[in-house]
Amino acid sequence: MISTLISHSRNVMNCLRHLDGLAPLLMRLYLAPVMMQAGWMKLANFESTVNWFGNPDWGLGLPFPELMVILAGGAELIGGLLLIPGLAVRWFSVPLMVTMLVAALTVHWQNGWLAIADASSWLANDRVHASTEQLQRGREILRTHGNFSWLTQNGNFVILNNGVEFAATYFIMFLTLFYTGGGRYVSLDYWIKYHYYKEKSLHE
Q1: Per DSSP, what are the bridge partners of residue 177?
Q2: Listed GO cellular component terms (predicted)?
Q3: What is the dihedral of CA 172, 55, 50, 169, to 10 degrees?
Q4: Residue 184: CA atoms inside 13 Å, Cβ hemisphere, count?
Q5: How many CB atoms sit inside 10 A of residue 174's CB?
Q6: pLDDT at position 196, please?
Q7: Distance (Å, rounded) from C-alpha 90 to C-alpha 193?
Q8: Long-range contacts of range 190-195, CB-CB < 8 Å, 24 or more positions apart?
Q9: pLDDT class for 167, splitting at 50, 70, 90?
Q10: Mean pLDDT across the chain, nearest whole number?
Q11: pLDDT tens profile 5-19
């Protein structure tokens, strides 16, 4: 009985192996618009982004800000575009991981983990707990002086904590793509590699 169950489980898993490209495909399609939007915003607003990258007082204080904007924005825009067909996925995962790491350390780290302030979370820090009063006061002002039901009909007001949550999540997703590649059957990388080895075997 047990041996039969194990045998059936192995057969099912062997069949599911043909769908192992589905997870990388979904990650690529999720990340592509996010990266493209981030890259486009950096490059379309080049001067203001350079000022933010380079200014040590109210910005990030990064060296060579023009070059950094071009590298970060270019990697996000071009890498995001290539994620859609699954071309050079492993190659572009590396600079995109670096971009996420730099963003996490220079922009988000001091804010803690949470992207959205939620004082009920066990990950909430002092900054998040302090925002509770600010959010409550803001809602009171809107109820008194604004059409609160209209203002909140598409969602509640929140405070952006801007923690490392999203940057860390994207980093892990790109790290996963670095090891899995674009995915079997569903990426140009797979078919380029497939035809390369097919041609190679024919000439040996």
Answers
A1: none
A2: plasma membrane
A3: 10
A4: 5
A5: 26
A6: 85
A7: 13
A8: 190/21, 190/86
A9: very high
A10: 92
A11: 777 677 777 776 778
